[in-house]
Design goal:
alpha/beta; homodimer
C-alpha cells in the first residue's frame, strides 16, 4: 500500500533569534506527517533532511507518479521506521527552497516586496533545531520517541540531543560527523565560488534580473556528486566506458576536450543540468555554510567529550566503510565521546560500496539495523 | 652552488602526425639542459612534466631570485639526480603555455595570423613522447640513461618504455597510474566545465576578445588543489581554523556565505587567483584530456600485463600512502604487470602524509630511494 503524503504548512508569528545575532521576523515551515500520533503523544519521530532534500520524506503525492519521498525506502508502513507504529514528521528547514521561508520568498523588511535573495540571514544547524522544536510545540509534542537524520540531517539529530536533551528519547545519526574536515569545507567553498562568481548570480539578487546562475549550480552539483560516491562504485558503474566509441578511431576516442567522451562525464553533466533546474543558488550557499559551521565541540575548547556531556538520550550511529565524505572515523569520534560520558550507544559500521550515498540506498544490513533499533523503541513507547 | 638555467628552443619543420589523426604542421619545443653530455652520449636523463609545470625543472635563471625549477630539490649538483653525473633534459610539452607550440601561438592555418586557441589539436601522452624523441634525435642522443616523471610525467616515462623500448635503459615512474579512474576523470571534467562555461571562454577563442576565463580557471585550480593534498595534511595545515575570529561572536564566526571564514578557503582562493594569472585555459583542457586518454592497456583488451610486455627497460616505481589521486594501488598494478612479464622492477611505497603533492616535496626516504637508484644507474653508465 502506498502512503499518500500531504504537504502542510505552519506559520510562526514570534520572531526567531538566530545564532548569528540576526533574527527572522516571522516565518513558515513546510512539513508532512505520516501515521497517527498516539493518545500519550509519545510515538513521534522527527526526520531531519540533508542538503537538497525536503519535508517530503516518505509516501507519494496523490495522483503524482514517481513522487516518492527521499527516504521512502526507510519510512512507511512495515518499513524500518514503521508508520503503523510511529507518527513520523518530515520538516523542511529554514533557508531551503521547498516551501519553508527562504531566499526565494518575500523579505518583509524589503521596500518593494522583493524576495530575500542574498539577504536571507545565515542559519545554522542549531537554528534549524530551534525552529523544529517550535513546530513540535505547535503540534503538541513534548518529547520525541526519536529524532533521526543522515549526513547534515544527522548533525541536526545530534544537535537535538544537545539543545533539548529532555525532548528526545533516541537520536539516530547516520553517515554524519561531529563537524566538517578542512577537505569537506574546501569542497563546499569551491561549489560556493562557482555559484557566486557566475555572472548570473548578481550578488545573490538574480531573481530581479530574471536569470538563474545555472552554470555555477551545475558545477556545484557535479562536485557534490563526486563526493557522494566512492571511487569503487564509480569504477564499477562507469569505469572508463565511453559514451559512444568512434568507429575508425583505434582507441574509440573522439579526441575532443569539450564533447562528452566518457560515461562518467555524461552522468555528471546530466546531474548538474537537472539540479540547476530546481535548486535555489542562495539556498545552496546557506545550507553548505550550515554544514561548515556545525561544530558542537567548538565552545568546549575542541573537546567533543565535554560537548556531548549534555546529551542524555540513547543513540544509534551508523556509518558506511566507503563514505569518504563522512567517514566511519568521524562517527567513531561521536561514539567515543558518548561512551566517555557513559551514554547508551549502539553503533553499526556497514561494509557498503556506495560511499556517502549509501545512507539513502537499500542495503539490507543497514535497513535491518535501523529496523531492529526502532522495534525496541516501539516496545519502549508501548510500555 | 646554484645551477644557472638557460631556456632553449628547437624548431621542427617536419609535420608531427598525432594519435587523433590530425597533425601539427610544424612546431617548436622549449627545453633546458643541466650538466654535460658525456663522450659516449650515454648519461642523458629526460624529465617529463605534469599538469602545470614546464621545461624549467632545475636551477634558477640568472638574476632572477626565486626562479627555482619545479623539481629543483630532486635535480642538481649532488642531488638525487646528480647533474655532476648526468646530462638532464627538461622539455615543455606541446599544447602547454610555457614556450612550446600551444594554443596561445599563431596557427599557421588561420587566415589572419590568429592564435590556435581551441583549434589546437588534442595531444596525447604518446604524442608528447614522440615529440620528445625527435628532440633527442636533434640533440644526438640515441639512448637515455633514464626517463623520469611524476604524476602525468610518470605516464610519459611509462609510455617511453612502450613506444621506444630500445631508447631508455631505465624508467622512473613516481606517483603515477596506468590510467585514470572514473573519479579522476570526473574531477577533470568538472574543472573543464567550469572553464568552458565561463562566459569569457568564448568557445576557446577568448584571446581575440581581450579577456581570459579567470572564473573557470580559478575553480579548476581550487578543485585540483583539493585533490593534490591528503585529508590529513589539510586538517593539520588548516583544520577548522578561522582566518580571523570575530570579537563578540560566541563561536568567532562572522556568519557569511560569501566572505572568507576559514583558513582553507583563503588558501584555495589564493591558489585559484594566482593560477588564473598565468595559466592558459585551453592548455588546461588539453592537458587534463591527455590524462584522461592515457590507457596503454586499452588496445590490449584491458590487459596491462599484455600492454607492458613491450617494455624492456628497468623500472623504479614510487608511490605515497596518502595519495588518493594516484594511490599506491595504481602503482602496484604497474608493478604487477611488469613482474608478470619478468621485468626488473624496484618499488617503494613511501608512508608520507602529503597526498599527491608528496612527489614534489622533501621527504628524506623518497629522495634517498631515488638517489640510490640513480647511483646504480651512474655505475652502469660509467661501466
Amino acid at each position: 500500500m502506498t502512503l499518500i503524503a500531504t504537504p502542510q504548512q505552519m506559520h510562526f508569528d514570534a520572531p526567531l533569534p538566530l545564532q548569528s545575532g540576526a533574527s527572522l521576523r516571522d516565518y513558515a515551515l513546510s512539513f508532512e506527517t505520516y501515521g497517527a500520533l498516539n493518545a500519550q503523544r509519545s510515538n513521534a519521530v522527527l526526520i531531519c533532511h540533508a542538503l537538497n532534500a525536503s519535508h517530503h520524506v516518505a509516501g507519494a503525492y496523490a495522483g503524482q507518479e514517481n513522487s516518492q519521498g527521499w527516504w521512502d525506502n526507510m519510512i512507511g508502513p512495515g518499513k524500518p521506521v514503521d508508520t503503523d507504529q510511529f507518527f513520523v514528521i518530515g520538516v523542511n528547514n529554514l533557508g531551503s527552497c521547498f516551501g519553508s521561508t527562504g531566499p526565494m520568498q518575500v523579505n518583509p523588511d524589503a521596500a518593494q516586496g522583493q524576495v530575500y535573495g542574498a539577504d536571507f540571514p545565515v542559519v545554522t544547524v542549531e537554528d534549524w533545531v530551534t525552529a523544529q522544536a517550535r513546530l513540535l510545540d505547535a503540534l503538541g509534542i513534548e518529547k520525541l520517541a526519536a529524532v533521526m537524520g543522515g549526513s547534515l540531517g544527522g548533525m541536526q539529530a545530534l544537535s537535538w540531543a544537545l539543545q533539548y536533551p529532555e525532548r528526545a528519547a533516541h537520536a539516530v545519526v547516520v553517515a554524519s560527523a561531529p563537524n566538517l574536515t578542512a577537505e569537506n569545507i574546501a569542497f563546499n567553498e569551491v561549489a560556493r565560488r562557482a555559484i557566486v562568481t557566475d555572472p548570473d548570480f548578481h550578488g545573490g539578487h538574480f531573481y530581479q534580473h530574471g536569470v538563474i546562475p545555472k552554470r555555477g549550480l551545475r558545477i556545484a552539483r557535479m562536485i557534490g556528486h563526486i563526493t557522494y560516491l566512492s571511487d569503487d562504485v564509480m569504477n564499477e558503474k562507469f569505469g572508463r566506458q565511453l559514451r559512444e566509441a568512434v568507429l575508425g578511431s583505434a582507441a574509440g576516442y573522439r579526441y575532443s576536450t569539450q564533447e562528452v567522451e566518457f560515461q562518467i562525464e555524461s552522468y555528471l553533466r546530466h546531474q548538474g543540468d537537472k539540479f540547476a533546474e530546481y535548486f535555489d543558488a542562495n539556498t545552496y550557499l546557506l545550507i553548505t555554510r550550515a554544514l561548515d559551521y556545525f561544530d558542537p565541540a567548538r565552545s568546549y575548547g575542541g573537546s567533543l567529550t565535554q560537548a556531548l556531556g549534555r546529551a542524555t538520550c540513547k543513540f544509534l550511529l551508523v556509518s558506511f566503510t566507503t563514505d569518504w565524505r563522512f567517514s566511519p572515523k568521524r562517527s567513531r569520534e561521536i561514539v567515543k565521546a558518548l561512551l566517555d560520558n557513559k551514554r547508551d550507544v549502539s553503533y553499526a559500521e556497514i561494509d557498503a560500496p556506495h560511499g556517502h550515498d549509501a545512507f539513502l540506498l537499500d542495503d539490507p544490513r543497514y535497513l535491518s539495523v535501523v529496523s531492529s533499533y526502532f522495534d525496541s523503541i516501539s516496545k519502549e513507547v508501548a510500555a
